[in-house]
Known about the structure:
The complex is a heterodimer of chains A (374) and B (367). Chain A is α/β, with parallel strands linked by helices. Chain A is built from 15 helices and 14 strands. In chain A, a hairpin with a 2-residue loop joins strand 4 (87-92) and strand 5 (95-96). Chain B is α/β, with parallel strands linked by helices. Chain B is 32% helix and 21% strand.
Amino acid sequence: MNIEYSEANSSPAIAQHVQPPVLEAKHLRKYFPLRQVMLLGEKRVVHAVENASLTLSAGRALALVGESGSGKSTIARLLARLYEPTSGVIAFKGEPVKSGKSALRAYRRHVQMVFQDPFASLNPIHSVRYLLSRPLRLHKLARTKKEETEQILALLDRVSLSPAEQFIQKYPHQLSGGQRQRVAIAHALAARPEVLLADEPVSMLDVSIRLDILNLLLQLKDEEQLALLFITHDIASARYFAEDTMVMYAGQTVEGGPSDEVIQRPSHPYTKLLISAAPDPDTMTGEDRRAVTLPARGEIPSLIRPPGGCRFHPRCPHAMPVCRERFPGRSDLGGGHWTHCFLYGEGNLAAADAATKDNASKITVTTRDDQQEL
Amino acid sequence: MQNGRSGALAFAPAPLLEVKNLSVDYLAANGTVHALTDVSISLARGQILGLAGESGSGKTTLGYAITRLLRPPAVITGGTLLYYPATGEPVDILQLTPPQLRAFRWNTLAIVFQSAMNALNPVLTLGTQIEDVLRYHRPEMNREQRRARVVELLKLVGIAPDRIRSYPHELSGGMRQRSIIAMALALSPEIVIMDEPTTALDVVVQREILTELIRLREQLSFSIIFITHDLSLLLELADTIAIMYAGRVVETATCRQLQSQPRHPYSYGMLHSFPSLHGPRQRMTGIPGSPPDLRSAPSGCAFHLRCPFAISACSEVLPTLQHPTESMLDQLVACHMYNPALTGPDLPTNADFAQGYEAAYATRKRR
């Protein structure tokens, strides 16, 4: 059964014009200072996120894909205002978010987070009732004890923990991983948020439970018109879950656009690398197992002294001298698909054309259904 | 094949390692956990056997049982482990005396542990740790020979030889995993058990290690038991796959058979739990419920509470591993759907499985 795409989904560029973004981040940067005594020289910092911009709209999901150390969790924490950005603007419904305790509390009512590890994110000494009553009380959403219980039961019902009357009195250790993550989701929903930031919500769970949780989040997204940020290292689940995908490498955003566009027709060399490395049983099995030749070797660079320009250039098979000097601007590839790569432009179309042709001969990921020339 | 019922598959060439009816219990204070019950698998010479299952399905316990690394409260309560050397009589691993076991381990059978972070000693250099193995198992080698062998091993797995003096914290996750593999291969074992060797690694590094592994295997021709929860990885890598659920093997098949027509409803559910990179985007249903507590496993088939196809017999009678039909000798499944007396002669197809899971998903959603 195909996912029913609503009309707005089929043309994301238009949808964004019709619907103003709920949460918008522009030119976010985050540097973490290193706690080191340096007598000489400048203070060293970890360049965790460089110039990231993204928008989240109601009823849509944006997947943030990258390896560990790419800065994707930092972005979620910046958006949740758990970290103060070094520079950049975060705007909720067009209004820049102010700092200050009460302003942040009001903001966090609308923007909630689901964390990766449900074994660590729920306090083990409190019952489910207490855990879920906290956000209700903090944000003054329930006036009486009876109202509170009703709302908690309704929350448990919404995350399909039934019978809710039984789950309300349990403690985290009495729940399985999947059930805990459901409680964590209910906890995030308690404040009736408009934005949900899910940081690898299923990677700690058993394989057979993952889809259940993903489907629950999808259902909630549709029912409550939540704006979802879905952080994952698994590019296949990004395609399954999110309308839009953004790829990060070493703190820089390298490519983005509608998920199918980005994953079926990746343009940035790093995205191509990620996709060719992903386990893919559709390719070949048995004796004729494929020998995947990865287009680029190496590892994510140190973010304390990152390579200049495009941080992928030391691993990139197509690196040019200009890649070392500066980070490329955004090149539009049509249909909302964009990338930051000199192969695709900055005005110099002839060179880009030549490079893409060159690509085709170098990287060929063989797939079963079509021989995609990337 | 005469012992088809005990789990040896007819298509398999000469076995190298055979596990027969192995059971392992964990004697915990609040009840015995039956971690493995009546498990039979066989690893053929030169092949990769994949063990897939969720956490708690007993796959790591099986790996440890084969190497006899289980410690109390784990107890092997039954079964035999047979190793077939190239020449000579089969060896019962469970009957080996401590000195025999020491000679058997690492020389014949090596294991790559789950987290490379913890498997290396943080206060010793990489070279010392690999040399340690040689010093113990190859006392006749002198210092230069050992060094030369270490350098050779590091080169083999793609680590620059100057890393010999590095400490584990100076290596990246991928390099640590490579050095663990180098260590396992130090004495050229015939069998290597790999327990989730790439789980903690990023996809790109994982791919590099797997490519390396395939190359090494072709070069050194050892057999692998590859333990993972990631079935999509096994489909690319393994020759034969055994699917485990709640301490039992529920299906064994060749990789291709499993991919084209899984027989057990759980195998089908697992196969369809991984979103694909190609084709139309499909709404996937997943498997309802969660794995059982092994202290009080459900009666009959342990999967029946989550199975969309459960019939009354499933909660009463435990299905045994059998060929789906008389003629299908290369697949084994433990499910009542293949018992003609209970469900008729028609075998369920992928379409039937899809329909069943779809219906179960619809009822869950309505609720």
